[in-house]
Amino acid sequence: MKTRYVIISPCRDEALHMGVTIESVAKQTLLPALWVIVDDGSRDETPRILEEARTRYPFITVVTRADRGRRAVGPGVIDAFYAGYETIDPTSFDFLCKLDLDLDLPATYFAELVRRMDADPRLGTCSGKPYYRGQGGELVSEGCGDETSIGASKFYRVECFQEIGGFVREVMWDGIDCHRCRMLGWKAHSWDEPELRFIHLRPMGSSERGILTGRMRHGFGQYFMGTSLEYMVASALYRTTRPPYVVGGLAMLAGYLRSMARREPRYSDPEFRRFVRQSQREFLLKGKRKAIAELDARQGAVFERRHPRPGDTAPVRQD
Prior knowledge:
By secondary structure, the chain is α/β, with parallel strands linked by helices. It has helices at about 20-25, 45-55, 75-85, 110-120, 160-165, 175-185, 210-225, 230-240, 245-260, 270-285, 290-305; strands at about 5-10, 35-40, 60-65, 95-100, 105, 125, 130-135, 140, 155, 185-190, 195-200. It folds into 2 domains: about 5-200, Alpha-Beta Complex (Spore Coat Polysaccharide Biosynthesis Protein SpsA, Chain A); about 205-295, no CATH class. It contains 11 helices and 11 strands. It has a 7-stranded mixed sheet with strand order 3-2-1-4-9-6-10, with helices on both faces. Strands 5-11-7-8 form a 4-stranded mixed sheet. The longest helix is centred in the C-terminal third of the chain and has 19 residues, at about 290-305.
């Protein structure tokens, strides 16, 4: 059976970068069956560029939303994503990708992700690794962990996406989804290999109000997700070794502590928050790579209960 995947791309004022992304998708060796691009109230040349792309590439459709007057990172991005998702029948596709419009992808990117998905039926979501160009033009890794698919390029098995309940409409949506995958027995992964490295034309964690604002926002997102204080401190210390050095990690910690002091609301599922904290405790004690391998092995039993093989009569728990 021919593999079918759909891309959904929320965007707002992306005229500076989106042409590169559009051309890099158009050059894929495995083209999407459909690419829904959601213009979330752009004020620049984005609508004109999208109209040109729609006429050139028959797999592109455009959904236009009214201008809300401002960017709304996190909830706004996911609201725009769902404006596109609601126009499709997800069961018509094998895979679904939430893709940002500030990326430059290698030509075999999606074909390689599909190949790896086909090789492991428990792999629910995956991606390559983002790099950005440093001041001297050199490529710099954004240092993302292997245990998650990257928010800018979330490639999902449709069955898995539906089972976890999709994306949460909050800042840490791109961390919560991967933890929910593992909680339900799926695997989440990203690879730092040449055929899957892509260029992020705008560095991760940046913001229209500055990169430190983005890092503060990340700290709030960690608090919302249920991350423990000890894990947040460890994560922030690691981030002080990545650009922007020192201040980036401190801004993340400040965002977390401010949310804690204000007693901001947290993700509403207590079982999920316990799962996150237990996983993070094992990350600190054993190292993330070893802890994830052990966790994936343990959660295989959860997957088997929820997805019995033909002839297996074990009951399936519906969470």
